[in-house]
Fold these 3 entries.
Entry 1:
Amino acid sequence: MKILICVSGGIAAYKIPDLIRELTKRNHEVRVCRTQAASHFVTDLVLETLSNHKVYSSLLNGLPSEETLRSDYPIEHIALAKWAEKILVAPATAATLSKLACGSCDDLVSTVVTAHTGPVLIAPSMNTAMLNHPAVKENLEKLRGWGYEILEPDSGSLACGEEGAGRLPDLTRLVNHLEAPAPSSSPFSNKRVLITAGPTRVFIDPFRFLSNPSTGKIGFELARELSRLGAKVTLVHGPTSLKVPRSLHQVFSITTPEEMNETVTRLFPDQDVLISAAAVSDWIPLKREPAKIKKETQSELLLKFKKGPDILRNCSDLKKTGQILIGFAAESDQLEKNALKKLISKGVHAIVANTVSETQGFGDQESELSFFSINHSTPFKIGPAPKETLAKNLVHHLESWINEPIHGQISL
């Protein structure tokens, strides 16, 4: 594969030579384009020696010196953009992100990336406070909405001496993302995928509700990854603070289990795949008080509940030949036993299960998943890893799983 690495001026630039070495060992052809500031952190000599190609750094260099670039595209930034099959911007500093998001094109890196029509991977790396600044977050969301793949930074010790998110993803993550198949080769390309995410709320009066700590992170990341692979993703989500990816086909925001049930069962007949990752309330109060329940009027409060809608079972009853149903199960104990029971009772093709306890589960940055399917007696383990990575690994497993011969009756 022809990979162009665009290096900007962050301390993490010192890690790029190791990345180049690994990619060339895997028989990828690597070229390097850098900002002026990047030269303060890693020298051209090192980058050229490891990539075996000159380093491109100036927008006004004139014609490329190499015949392979000069032959078809005499303008350097266009030649590089056309040559690359994939571009990685790493480390992507706040300044580089701003230029890419604004389309300023006042240096070679921003110009080449803007001129490139293929996949672009962006690996932000900076101080945690900078990463969390509204301007940086807005620029990342804008780039993500345009179809660029944003690699979430790792957490740990930063060069400034602080602890937090902002480290360049490790070598393995970078290589895995670069070697991921192109969207057009994915079995999910142009398929209609319905994903549920986040919690629901059940109200006992106009002021109070019962819910759970689900953030919706896994569901949102699955939606983002499948959309990147060319799927037409419809997301139905409960109350969450997460920003919705702009690349999705349709988005529906709901609050209650009844609203989610109505929306999902209405949309499901036109879908190829349902991934039910939402943490839907299992129990609903028998009665919702019309006014605020005053504590002065009673010394204790007793509530009675009824079962809420079984969305996954309802969709299973509606499914047609070829539709794939994948459920999620959060369990506090006997994970395998309960996941297999749900796999059978819901009439679905697979269950993705995770353990929720006092020390792990909802809201954690990292988690571990177990994938149970109708075709395998033992689960496939995914993680522990950050939820962004979990989602990508799960989708990668789904791509191979739905293509297995044994899945002839439900394959896409």
Entry 2:
Amino acid sequence: MSSTDAAHAARLALERLWPREAFFDVLERYVALLLEANARVNLTRVIEPDAIARLHLLDALAALTLIGARGPIRAADLGSGGGVPGLVLAIARPEIAWTLVDSVGKKAAILRDFADQLSLENVSVVAERAETLGRDAAHRERYDLVTARACAPLPVLAELALPLLEQGGQLLAWKGPLAADDPEVRAGNGVSSLLGGGEPRLVDAGHAALGGHRFVTIDKLTPTPPRFPRRPGEPARRPLG
């Protein structure tokens, strides 16, 4: 099956899972670009149309209700990889200025090419580590929303994301079937308070096709202390808490 045919099949599968939206035409073109690029660079292991519709497109779009309630102006997506969820959400919410962040230069270049080919004027791409951006005045505490999917355990993700959020902003993380008493959530709670964040909240994804996937949200309440984030790589090597 060609990338174009697979993209159309994925679009039809998505229409069975989600009410048809005007931006589905752009999503279909994005999927074709993703599959074409994936033949050259490993961006995703999910290549079957039904799986793309469920695990990439629906999984990203499930966050629209949460994002819609906030109405952010500037958003950053950490570890954007092949563009999920950041590029999908940028297609769905063109009024938001999205910064897609990936530390791998080759992946960042592909994301720029995707944005150019899809004429997404609300998307910019940064090839940098989140720890570095968190100490850059152009990015530190500048975002209303930070999103991340399959990026890092919650204590690590909190240190990467919270320095980027302005007060009143929110971290929105895609997670599996976490429970409130899960060790990851408990550890994330302690780290969040250290970094100026509130208590992590769990929100069901709201779609049976996504199984037990949940979102974790953390509100930014106070400024992050200047010593955070630590040097690149240290949050993962030596998680706080």
Entry 3:
Amino acid sequence: MEWLANVSIKWVLVWIGALLLLRALLLRGRGWSFSGAVREFVEAALVAVVTVFLLVRPFLVQAYFIPSESMHSTLLESDRLLVNKILYRLRPPHRKEIVVFRPPEERVPEMKDYIKRVIGLPGETIEVVPKRLLADGRTLMRITRLTASQGMRENYQTEAEIGFTFPLGMGRVVVSGNTAVLAGGPGDDLRVAVYRPRDAVRVGPHTVTVNGKTLLSTVWGKITTRTDVSQWGGDPELEGRVVYVDAEPRLILVRGEKLTLDPGHVLVDGRRLVEPYVAEDPEYAMPPMEIPEDQYFVMGDNRNRSFDSHAWGPLPRSHILGRADFLFWPPHRFRLIQAR
């Protein structure tokens, strides 16, 4: 089915020519009933090929095969879809519709169809905000998988400023009460905690305590502190200190009442986009980008495993082939595909 959906017009014309030649040869044997039956079959096949490949597929409906994990969990590898190719001749794409398209060839040399979800419309400003630790609702840390400089190289806007982020690599953030631990990253585990103005904070040569409770202790390393807690993209008005052991950050203490973890998300004109379909929150940051006229911003539902507009930029409307409307294979996943 995948190869049939991507047969070029050149080979369609070759097939039509071959069927026409075969039909002409069979017309000489009208006296044979077998020949007549074969001739009728060839005529029907010729009509079918012309109808499907020169009318239905270019202008109405086309089959599409899902080749990768970029649309998990909405669409899975080997799902087969029917793509509505007439809809966008009548109206422009809408937000959250799933579209099949050819990526801009000047930025993506690979000549094959892609499938993503429309996230941003012409004239809008799109931004991807990474995961953040918040102290009383204000940003304390912006957390990404890569460093800011590495993230910029993966971004369409290579000259833009992403801002400071804490690179967690393949690690994780665990929040419990008013403390958080950033564990499993490329460096030592980092603990984050809030303290209230009335709390007693003590920093010694080998221990840090709050109200007598030990938050950090070390035997061999030397503890030093700095008062700037905004170095990883935090609000500069937050008060606190960063505690280092042998120049490695191990503890962040910030003055406040509540510590929370805010997932990564997309902003459209400064407003958070509600996306219940994403497989996981983005682990990268993308600075604000205004979408040009007659272009669209498309992203895979599997945000961290999708080669999409955040990497190669906005998509011209002329490159959009159609909307994915119907999942017909495998049978147990048989359903309509609708924007949510």
